[in-house]
Structures are given as structure tokens and as C-alpha cells.
Write a structure and sequence with these properties.
Blueprint: E1 5-14, E2 17-18, H1 20-28, E3 35-36, E4 44-45, H2 54-57, H3 67-83, E5 97-102, H4 108-121, H5 138-147, E6 153-156, H6 162-175, E7 181-188, H7 192-201, E8 225-233, H8 234-239, E9 246-255, H9 268-281, E10 288-292, H10 299-313, E11 322-323, H11 326-329, H12 336-350, E12 352-353, E13 373-374, E14 379-385, E15 390-398
Parallel strand pairs: 5-6, 5-7, 10-11, 10-14
Antiparallel strand pairs: 1-2, 1-8, 1-9, 3-4, 7-8, 9-15, 12-13, 14-15
């Protein structure tokens, strides 16, 4: 059994930039991608404008990929190249290299378009070439085909916690020797159907600004993108002469659903997830150097998370630096946990947690800031709490030989 799981590379494409270096620099600058949509008039979103996958994927074979598959394939390309595990020139792929992807909707626009054409024109007139993109695991499957990933290929759907569940799922596969290297994270696209869904449920910010934990917060700003880590066993990384960045440690999860789209304000599931993550790591709250929050500007969701953090961290909570990065890149739904994990990893590496974009309220007992905050320590806590009752927390650590 391989006990240690290492992070050796990352790939990310988001509304605030592509590539971990650009992504991290824009986070540090306090940039927010929230703006009136170019594709969906009348709605403020954090979208990837003028998205063109060709600089990463080339022109061959991308016509059959929809937006979700392209986003995931781009992030995978970055992580594979950075890790030295790219298989572009291999005749066949490595059966020990795979992908675990978290998502809420998958290729929602492809699914809806295919179904709608069948309803309007009849089953005989649907385009069979579009059918492969109509299943929830289509982005993961298409990315695996594109990059010759012959190993584990799984899609995890756990609401807003999907990305963290995917990282944990991949880490367990590695620990039990079922793979040597796995891309793990999430993807989510913005499309007409998802934006309309956000609008109909009334969760989009009327002011067009996400203000996590702020008293004046009035909702979320939908976002999109893909974030992936390359996870490897300690042995696999050592065999390749790679020095890992981070170690994936304790994970906790709990379900407290009571409504199809409503947070449980008592925060019992979130509290339990936090406690499990710390207990499974074998550390105390005092050892956490920073927290990357799931808060998005939701009045109920942010209140619930603050309550759970207060229960677990007690009077020391105001001394723990916190970042709520969804103010920068939006609510990326199933990919948001993976994005937050990436932020936590960058924070540990740079020993500074980025600002929370637009934060200007000190009415909560949390150490957020519109400027970056230096940190000192080796452990970071990542949260992903969903309105469907799925709650997950993950502890990561700077790698120690």
C-alpha cells in the first residue's frame, strides 16, 4: 500500500487566466473576472472569453469536442506537459495513468441540444455524432482519448463538492496501488441552460459582485473552467526523479441534505467534514496555516460555513488567514473544490494566501483581506460545501522528504 500521495503538477484554465502561474498572479493581484456576459445578455458571470483550445490541443480532432471536453482537455494538457508525463508521441498510452473528474452538469449544453432536437424533429433526425457528448462522463472520456490516458477514468458527481471528492477518490486509488499517476480535479462550463438555471433559482448576485462572507452579499457569480492536479505515488515520483510540491492528506465528508437546493444553516454536515479531515490527518486546528473557503456570496451558504468554522476552530478562528477565491473566478460548481485546492497549494508554496477580491467588511469573525496575507506553516484546509447537502474538506501539506 502506498501511503503518501504527491502533487507533482497542475493544469488550470479559468476566467482569470490559464496556467497555474498566470492564475496565481491574477489571484494575488485581487483581480475579479465578474463582468456582464458576452454570450448571455443581461447576466453577470465569470466566463472565459474568446476561448480557443488550439494553442494547447492543435486543430486536429477538436471539432468533436464540446466546450466542457475542451476545457478539461486543455487543463489535462497543461498538467501532463508540466509533469513530464505527456504521451503525445507514444503509440499506446500508459495503463497506469488515468483521470478522475468532478462535475455537476458535465456537457449540459450537448445533452440538452441532443434531447431537444429529438423532441422537436423526432429521433430519426438527431445527429448521431453528437451522442457521445450526452453522458455525464463525456468530458473525462474525451480528454482520455485525446491524451491517451488508458488507466482509471472516473467521473464523480457530488454537487459543489465534486472536485474535492475527485481528488480524494484518485488519492485512494493511488494508495491502494490501482494506479501510479492520476489527473484529478474538475470541470464545468457556462452555457445557456446552466445560466438560466442559476437565474431561475434566484442565486445570482443582483449587484453583479460576489462578496463572500460580506454583510452586503446578495448572491453568487457563475463561473466556468477546469482545474487538475497530477497526483502520483511517492514511489512513482521518485522513480522519475520528480520533487513533489504537496502531499494530499486527510479528507472528510458528510451529508446533511434537507432541501434540493437549500443549505442547512445549522452546518452540522460541514462541521463533521471539517472534523473528519483534521482527525484523518492527525493534526489539531492550531496547525492549519490557512483556510481556502467554499464561500461564494450566498447568504445561506456563507453563514453556514462561518458557523461550522467557528465550531471547529473556536476562539482561534480570527487568527487563521482565510481566502474565498470564488470572488475572483466565480462559482465553478463541480470544479470549484479543485480550484480551491489549487489555491491552497499555491498559498503553501508561496507562504502567502491571496486576497479575497472585493472584500471590504470586517463584520465577521474571520481573517479575510482585500490584500494578500503572509502565512507560516505547512498545512492548508480546503472546503467545498454544497446546497444539496454534500460537504467535503481536505487537508494538504507542503511536501517533506
Amino acid at each position: 500500500m502506498n501511503d503518501r500521495v504527491a502533487v507533482t503538477a497542475a493544469g488550470v484554465i479559468s476566467a482569470i487566466g490559464a496556467g497555474s502561474e498566470t492564475f496565481g498572479c491574477n489571484l494575488e493581484s485581487g483581480r475579479s473576472a465578474s463582468a456582464p456576459s458576452e454570450r448571455f445578455p443581461g447576466v453577470t458571470v465569470a466566463e472565459i472569453t474568446d476561448f480557443n483550445p488550439q494553442p494547447w490541443l492543435g486543430a486536429k480532432g477538436i471539432r468533436v469536442l464540446d466546450r466542457s471536453a475542451r476545457l478539461l482537455a486543455v487543463a489535462a494538457k497543461m498538467a501532463l506537459d508540466e509533469s513530464g508525463l505527456s504521451q503525445e508521441n507514444a503509440e499506446t498510452g500508459d495503463p497506469n495513468l488515468g483521470l478522475v473528474c468532478g462535475t455537476v452538469f458535465g456537457s449540459l449544453h450537448s445533452i440538452t441540444s441532443f434531447d431537444w432536437s429529438g423532441i422537436e424533429e423526432g429521433p430519426a433526425w438527431v445527429n448521431p455524432m453528437e451522442f457521445p457528448n450526452t453522458v455525464i462522463n463525456a468530458p473525462a472520456g474525451q480528454a482520455a482519448i485525446k491524451h491517451k490516458l488508458r488507466g482509471v477514468n472516473s467521473t464523480v458527481c457530488a454537487g459543489l463538492a465534486s472536485g474535492l471528492f475527485a481528488i480524494h477518490y484518485a488519492a485512494e486509488f493511488l494508495r491502494f496501488g490501482r494506479a501510479r499517476a492520476l489527473l484529478a480535479g474538475g470541470v464545468e462550463e457556462l452555457c445557456e441552460e446552466s445560466v438560466r438555471g442559476f437565474a431561475k433559482t434566484g442565486v445570482i448576485s443582483r449587484s453583479g459582485v460576489a462578496r463572500p462572507f460580506g454583510v452586503e452579499r446578495d448572491g453568487v457569480v457563475p463561473g466556468e473552467g477546469s482545474a487538475l492536479w497530477m497526483l502520483e505515488t511517492e514511489e512513482a515520483a521518485a522513480d522519475r526523479g520528480r520533487t513533489p510540491w504537496l502531499e494530499v492528506l486527510g479528507f472528510g465528508c458528510a451529508q446533511d441534505a434537507h432541501s434540493i437546493n437549500g443549505f442547512d444553516l445549522r452546518g452540522e454536515g460541514a462541521t463533521e467534514a471539517l472534523r473528519q479531515a483534521l482527525a484523518n490527518t492527525g493534526i489539531s486546528p492550531e496547525q492549519i496555516a490557512c483556510i481556502v473557503s467554499s464561500a461564494s456570496g450566498s447568504r445561506a451558504g456563507d453563514e453556514m460555513e462561518a458557523r461550522a468554522l467557528e465550531r471547529v476552530f473556536g476562539p482561534q478562528l480570527p487568527d487563521v488567514p482565510i481566502c474565498a477565491p470564488k470572488a475572483a473566478f466565480g462559482e465553478v460548481m463541480g470544479a470549484s473544490g479543485a480550484f480551491c485546492a489549487l489555491v491552497a497549494g499555491l498559498s503553501l508554496q508561496r507562504q502567502a494566501i491571496p486576497p479575497t477580491a472585493g472584500y471590504a467588511s470586517d463584520s465577521v469573525r474571520l481573517q479575510l483581506s482585500p490584500a494578500g496575507i503572509p502565512i507560516s506553516g505547512e498545512y492548508a484546509l480546503v472546503n467545498a460545501f454544497g446546497c444539496d447537502g454534500n460537504n467535503a474538506s481536505l487537508v494538504i501539506r507542503l511536501w517533506e522528504n
